[in-house]
Design goal:
The structure holds 2 protein chains of 2 kinds.
Chain A (H helix, E strand, L loop, with lengths): L3 E12 L2 E12 L3 E5 L6 H8 L7 E6 L2 E2 L3 H4 L3 E4 L11 H11 L5 H10 L13 H15 L3 E5 L7 H16 L3 E5 L3 H7 L2 E6 L2 E7 H7 L2 E7 L12 E6 L4 E6 L4 H8 L3 E8 L2 H10 L4
Parallel strand pairs in A: 3-8, 3-9, 6-7, 7-8
Antiparallel strand pairs in A: 1-2, 1-4, 4-5, 9-10, 11-13, 11-14, 12-13
Helix pairs in contact in A: 3-5, 4-5
Chain B lengths: L11 H33 L7 H9 L1 H7 L8 H34 L2 H6 L5 H29 L4 H28 L3 H24 L11 H7 L9 H21 L25 H29 L1 H10 L1 H9 L8 H32 L4 H4 L5 H33 L6 H9 L2 H17 L4 H21 L4 H4 L17 H24 L5
The chains are: A alpha/beta, B mainly alpha.
């Protein structure tokens, strides 16, 4: 494996009696667009606060490229961040905030910043006190994308954006990917994750339950099969890979397939199949299954 | 059918309950301070050797009247208490009332918490009215407790009740001022600034009105002046307090009326719309700290500068009076104001008072840093390659430098005042006197940084403790003749009377050392703790 843009080793964070993050070991390669998913309270924002050195880990460690995340003077030269909840000084205009962030930040491509201001249609001459949630988020997004920092950490960056701006966001992520930047994207928008991410990690109750590419996730998961027969349906009990067998009347069955379909297909072939529908689960159903399942 | 859900009741009691939760702790503290201090001074009063001719001379002196208010009925424990504590307690209650009013209305709205509240059946105007209504009860309680405490301590009852009523009316007035400010401006800091300006102008009008007979009518325009005009324990007039209460009620009604005429989150006065970017002082973390400090520094400088200019203007009258009436010089010395007879002694005593607002200024600036962190405004700054220590160092250094500037300006203002009346105070002496309070300011800075590192919610209170707490401690210790070691707990006990005497370098070094320890311990905490982001 190549260079890691972001790596955690047994990272844990405890708030009093609550274990917010439990032994997270994660490796995001440089140049990758990584989706970080999980229900509310799963520990996504805690992870990001630890990565940014805003909170101190109870145990374990986090690294940004080859520096410790706690060494923010070095680590933050190579990253830019968009918080979930952007708060700005009320009397400063958008342009002033962008100017401040550019001058104390890791270096900014001002030409690209001006282009982003146009694309996101942000009126930067207004004081931040007059901005909506979405407009405040645009300020942080423009500042982050304009840095060209090798790592972008985005915490639910599009929750306040309309669909047109969401499209701009996806384009900006695409540009970042083409530039070789790494994107760490925490999000609830599954369509967005599916559209932009190479790999996803799923966090539940402080634990990482899955890390896989979107395609792998689909493959790993059940396929729903519904079949009707002209004659008597075959007995599929005990056939390898068949789960949740259900009879829909005298001549129809439904079941889910896990892993290789070969054994089930052989069993079906021996009977007189009238119709067969094979449906892959949507990504949403896959995530819902993860979100709802008990911790391992 | 049985209902399992909570039945829909009237929302107003729940909202008042919310308001009570937000003010109860402060209400208890401010009530205890007002009632406790009044009772202590009544108990500590000794009517020995007050010659009526000397009292008459005191009452005639414009400087005494400017500084302490009209001295009336000093031959009674109650009258003396009103003269000694009335203005101070009115200011304490007024400041608390206006800050609480903006905090529970505009502050909650600013933080977005009222969005949820107002999505229910409550309108914005109702929310404002009920919150201010709950807060308005507090000054009434403070007034009642103060009157009761004074009567219990042995003061005459009619006068005590009148004094308590006056105090309550001032508190009510500032609840209303804070409430109106919160409707006019769309940010809590602007509302606080406007209310503080009303308070400072009111105080200066009272001082000028008391000191200059031709301008005595000014007192009718100032809440503090109206409170003084009631003259408890002497002629006892009710009219001024009626005027003040009516003004307060009108302002409260105005706040409710304005609240019904604006959008949630907006102010009556429109916020400035589009404007070109002002990019000065955005280049680095320290520069940005300077940028955020300039506006508050200007406001504080105007208020404190005007006060010390006035103190300078009355310097000559004051010192001449005390030289001519040694009996009062001795009395003033006993009350904690020694050596008022020379202009240097007078300046030294007055500069001691400077430690309080400057200490409060420093703690308020550090509290602003804590508030920026708590409101997540610092998150984007800390996501840049900026270490926490660098941020803390910049914020604390700029706050300290701004406070030193404030001290210097106050010294110059006092010097200018004395120069106008030819009181004979040298500029170097004035600056030395002002700079003499720097160790207490540094102590506040140390306490504030310590709090920022370990208990960020307490920065304002802990930071102001050495100055405001130390001052009150010394006043009480002097009033009750406390043993020396009790007095010594206040940093004010260790200030030399500069420029009348040489600075107490050793005490200053000790205070600086304690402050440095606070800064180091606070920095360690700030580096180690999780940020509220």
């Amino acid at each position: 494996m190549g260079v890691s843009a972001l790596r955690t080793e047994n990272l844990s964070k405890r708030y009093g009696r609550l274990l917010a993050l439990d032994n997270l070991t994660l490796d995001v390669a440089a140049g990758e667009v990584f989706g970080f998913l999980g229900p509310n309270g799963a520990g996504k924002s805690t992870t990001i606060r630890l990565l940014l050195g805003l909170a101190r880990p109870t145990s374990g460690r986090a690294r940004i490229f080859d520096t410790d995340a706690a060494d923010v003077a070095a680590a933050h030269r190579r990253l830019a961040y968009v918080p979930a909840d952007v708060a700005l000084w009320q009397r400063m205009t958008g342009a002033e905030v962008l100017d401040l962030l550019a001058r104390i930040g890791p270096g900014t491509d001002t030409a690209y910043r001006d282009e982003l201001i146009q694309r996101f249609a942000l009126d930067v001459s207004k004081p931040a006190g007059t901005y909506s949630t979405g407009n405040r988020q645009k300020v942080a997004l423009i500042a982050a994308f304009a840095t060209r920092a090798p790592l972008l950490v985005l915490d639910e960056p599009t929750s306040g954006l309309d669909p047109l701006m969401e499209l701009q966001f996806r384009q900006a992520v695409g540009v970042a990917r083409d530039n070789g930047q790494t994107v760490f994207l925490s999000s609830h928008q599954l369509a967005e994750v599916e559209a932009v991410c190479d790999r996803v990690g799923i966090l539940r109750a402080g634990q990482l339950v899955e890390v896989a590419s979107v395609a792998q996730l689909r493959r790993l998961h059940h396929t729903e099969v519904a079949a009707t027969f002209t004659g008597t349906p075959p007995d599929l009990t005990g056939v390898l890979g068949v789960d949740g067998l259900h009879e829909d009347g005298p001549a129809a069955v439904r079941f889910t397939l896990n892993g290789s379909p070969a054994a089930a297909l052989r069993a079906l072939a021996d009977a007189d199949v009238a119709t067969i529908v094979v449906r892959e689960q949507s990504l949403e159903e896959i995530f819902l299954a993860y979100y709802g399942q008990s911790p391992r | 059918m049985t209902a399992t859900a909570t039945p829909a009741t009237r929302p107003q009691p729940a909202m008042r309950g919310l308001a009570v939760r937000q003010v109860r702790r402060g209400a208890v503290v401010v009530t205890a301070v007002c009632a406790g201090m009044s009772a202590l001074v009544v108990v500590g009063y000794r009517a020995d050797a007050l010659d009526p001719a000397a009292v008459a001379a005191l009452a005639r002196n414009p400087a005494i009247r400017t500084l302490f208010g009209d001295p009336v009925a000093l031959d009674q424990a109650g009258g003396f208490t009103v003269w000694r504590t009335g203005t101070v307690l009115a200011v304490v209650l007024g400041v608390w009332a206006m800050l609480a009013a903006t905090r529970i209305t505009r502050g909650e709205e600013d933080a977005g918490r009222w969005g949820l509240l107002l999505s229910g059946r409550v309108t914005l105007a109702e929310a404002v009215r009920h919150h201010l209504g709950v807060l308005a009860v507090v000054p009434v309680l403070v007034g009642a407790a103060t009157a009761a405490a004074m009567i219990a301590a042995g003061a005459e009852s009619t006068g005590s009740v009148l004094h308590g009523t006056g105090l309550a009316a001032v508190g009510l007035f500032f609840v209303a001022v804070g409430g109106v400010g919160a409707q006019l401006f769309s940010s809590r800091s602007a509302a606080n600034g406007a209310a503080a300006a009303v308070l400072v102008v009111g105080l200066l009008m009272r001082m000028v009105g008391d000191g200059v007979p031709a301008l005595a009518w000014l007192r009718w325009l100032s809440p503090f002046g109206l409170m003084a005009l009631t003259r408890p324990f002497a002629t006892g007039r009710g009219l001024p307090v009626v005027v003040l209460t009516c003004a307060a009620l009108l302002l409260l009604a105005l706040a409710g009326w304005l609240a019904a005429r604006r959008d949630v989150g907006a102010g009556i006065l429109a916020t400035s719309d589009s404007r070109p970017a002002r990019t000065a002082l955005l280049g680095s973390v320290p520069a940005f700290a300077v940028r955020r400090t300039m506006r508050p520094l200007a406001a504080w400088s105007a208020g404190i500068g005007a006060y010390f200019l006035l103190l300078g203007l009355i310097a000559r009258s004051m010192t001449e009076f005390l030289t001519g009436n040694p009996q009062f010089a001795a009395m003033a010395a006993q009350a904690g104001f020694p050596a008022l007879g020379t202009v240097e002694g007078y300046a030294a005593t007055m500069f001691t008072l400077l430690a309080v607002p400057v200490g409060v200024f420093v703690s308020v600036r550090l509290a602003a840093t804590a508030a920026d962190e708590n409101a997540r405004r610092l998150t984007l700054v800390l996501a840049a390659p900026v270490t926490r220590l660098r941020l803390l160092a910049a914020e604390a250094t700029i706050a300290g430098c701004a406070a030193l500037l404030l001290i210097t300006l106050s010294g110059l203002a006092m010097w200018a005042g004395t120069a106008i009346v030819h009181a004979g105070l040298g500029a170097a002496d004035a600056l030395a006197g002002a700079w003499n309070v720097a160790p207490i300011m540094v102590l506040c800075l140390g306490a504030g940084v310590l709090a920022l590192g370990w208990r960020p919610r307490t920065v304002a209170a802990v930071g102001a403790l050495p100055a405001a707490g130390g001052f009150v401690w010394q006043v009480i210790a002097d009033s009750v003749d406390a043993p020396a070691w009790v007095r010594a707990l206040s940093p004010f006990a260790h200030l030399a009377a500069v420029p009348a005497t040489a600075p107490a370098w050793r005490a200053a070094a000790v205070m600086a050392g304690i402050a440095a320890a606070g800064v180091v311990a606070g920095s360690i905490g700030y580096r180690r703790r999780d940020l509220c982001t």
